[in-house]
Design brief:
Distance between the termini: 95 Å
Shape: elongated
Number of strands: 7
Number of helices: 10
Largest sheet: 5 strands, mixed
Strand order of the largest sheet: 2-1-7-5-6
Radius of gyration: 33 Å
Length: 291
């Protein structure tokens, strides 16, 4: 099987195992699905951290308003009493006014954060250095883990306007957000290898050859972004080692230039006549000045 090292720009994403007989169109869809799945997991984890700190999300018409403004407009969170965390809550005001401030109890917070940590570990970019592949089933497992933790803490579910619930139901609206710029639609996804676009009507073997046991770098791009930058000749670690070697060499040369001590010339090992003296038996002859 071929091991594809998927990158986005200069950033490593994950490893994906496939066959040289794979269609590029199908391969592109599978890779972009995993990519978007990782983004979804990270978005949910970020919102779950806020959930653990400040409770459920407020209705859209109440977000960002002060208590005085809410009272003046006579707005009311009809879901606050229904969607309460299991075991009770502590009141902790959300400084940005997005959530209702009904913070879950410490043990429930711990459960949410444990699920966040485990889910992020499943899609961590460090898996690349560990030579572990990432599959769609791994994304599903991470989502199921997060959904299970939220269900335990909120058995009555989250409000229908909460972004976490929308993410789990695949009804999230990312328009106007930074997250919308990160997501790549499958129809706009492109794969590039060695500076060339991998055309969707070709096979993987048409670009990397017929060697099933190889590892290649493939870059994921969005149509219209153009060709990605080529891979550097040296890795970051190799570049650091070369710079360190050059610096050490430079320091050695500076020391040699500053060292003008020639006392070593008085040493026996520096005498170019020492061998001749030994042959004539006068190597250890010493002279003493007398009266």
């Amino acid at each position: 099987m071929v091991l594809l090292h998927i990158k986005r720009g200069e950033s490593s994403l994950f490893l994906y195992e496939t066959s040289i007989r794979s269609d590029i169109s199908k391969l592109t869809f599978e890779i972009v699905t995993i990519f978007n799945g990782c983004l979804k997991v990270r978005r949910i984890c970020a919102e779950m951290e806020e959930l653990a700190n400040y409770g459920c999300m407020l209705p859209p018409e109440m977000i960002g308003l002060t208590n005085e403004q809410i009272e003046e407009l006579k707005l009311f969170d009809t879901w606050a009493e229904t969607c309460t965390p299991s075991g009770g809550y502590n009141l902790t005001k959300d400084p940005v006014g997005r959530r209702n401030g009904r913070q879950p109890l410490p043990q429930m917070q711990t459960m949410l954060r444990k699920a966040i940590s485990d889910a992020l570990a499943m899609i961590d970019k460090k898996l690349v250095s560990e030579n572990k592949t990432l599959l769609q089933k791994n994304i599903k497992e991470a989502l199921d883990l997060l959904h299970g933790a939220v269900t335990i803490v909120y058995p009555m579910q989250l409000p229908p306007h909460d972004s976490i619930r929308n993410e789990f139901q695949n009804t999230e609206d990312l328009s106007g957000t930074q997250a919308s710029l990160e997501v790549i639609e499958p129809v706009k996804a492109q794969l590039w290898f060695a500076g060339k676009q991998m055309l969707p009507d070709k096979k993987l073997a048409d670009f990397i050859g017929n060697n099933e046991k190889c590892k290649v770098i493939v870059k994921l791009q969005k149509s219209g972004e153009g060709a990605p930058g080529r891979e550097p000749v040296f890795t970051e670690e190799e570049r650091k080692q070369m710079m360190l070697h050059a610096y050490r060499r430079q320091e050695e040369m500076k020391k040699l230039e500053q060292d003008e001590d020639d006392s070593y010339l008085n040493s026996s090992w520096s005498n170019n006549m020492s061998l001749k003296s030994q042959m004539h038996g006068i190597a250890d002859v010493k002279f003493r000045m007398g009266k």
